[in-house]
Design a protein that fits this description.
274 residues; alpha/beta; Rossmann fold; two-stranded parallel sheet; 39% helix; globular
Length: 274
């Protein structure tokens, strides 16, 4: 039995469908589904996994410790979602949470794998590419720190789900950490392809990083939910997730961004999202 936490997330929902199509037994754990297990409080988690052979977490990495603490003592496999923030050198709460989760997994006595995914796009819940498309529609000029020359590796959601599916249906011996990412391109090139996908054009103007940092500092004084300055600081940092482990362990070749973006835009238009 495969037990899936975070089953109502984009990747959790798609993984569930893939398992159903393959006739693999699984159980979804999600507050939206009304299941009696809550990762925020820990209530019901132990009971939810008592008959599990594989536990998959599509929830935030911060819940890794709680999941591990509630696992039965017998052997089972873990498949956990982390984040490529783990590889960032920028001081950031999200990166620290993912590193902590990775350490907890590696120190456990359960086999399995943790997947550190870069920017996932194409689902209904993602907002990175959708926000970028919205900005391109509204503004013909985009001021971007450094001109957007840093390297990014956006990965289409179905490529991530395929990795999860293969991980969840593999018998593991030992604990592994695998980066999951798309083909590298510059942020600038990504933005140009986004503009092309909706029939727009955009001019990218380089600006010093301190200008948006000052703006964020001012906004954070009046917002109840602060904006993460790490997002701006990452414009000075290249994403560099090797693809070899993903391709060798899961036999998944990530699709080119333009190909995945075309699929994403088609889906978003059908859903009325864009």
């Amino acid at each position: 039995m495969i037990v899936i936490f975070g089953a109502s997330t984009d990747i959790g929902g798609r993984l569930s469908e893939k398992l159903r199509e393959a006739a693999v037994p699984f159980r979804r754990i999600s507050r939206r589904d009304g299941t009696a297990a809550d990762l925020s409080s820990g209530v019901g988690v132990r009971k939810a996994v008592e008959d599990a052979d594989v536990v998959v977490s599509c929830a935030h990495a911060r819940y890794t410790e709680l999941i591990i603490q509630n696992l039965p003592p017998r052997r089972l496999d873990l498949v956990l979602m982390g984040s490529a923030w783990r590889y960032s050198a920028i001081p950031n709460k999200r990166a620290e949470e993912v590193r902590k989760a990775e350490a907890e997994f590696l120190a456990s006595n359960h086999s399995g794998v943790m997947l550190h995914a870069s920017m996932i796009y194409g689902g209904s819940q993602e907002n990175n590419i959708q926000r970028l498309l919205g900005a391109i529609r509204r503004f013909s000029i985009l001021p971007v720190p450094g001109g957007g020359r840093q390297i990014v590796q956006p990965i289409y959601i179905d490529d991530v789900v395929e990795c999860l599916f293969r991980a969840a249906t593999t018998k593991w011996s030992g604990r592994y950490v695998v980066g999951v990412a798309g083909m590298p391109l510059s942020w600038r090139a990504m933005a140009k392809l986004c503009a092309k996908s909706i029939g727009c054009s955009c001019v990218i103007v380089p600006v010093p990083a301190f200008l948006p940092l000052v703006a964020i500092s001012l906004l954070n004084r009046v917002r109840s939910t602060p904006i993460d300055v790490g997002i701006v600081l990452r414009f000075g940092e290249n994403v560099n997730v090797p693809l070899s482990d993903m391709m060798e362990m899961f036999a998944v070749q990530p699709r080119e961004f333009e190909v995945g973006l075309r699929l994403a835009v088609e889906n978003w238009r059908r859903q009325g999202v864009i």
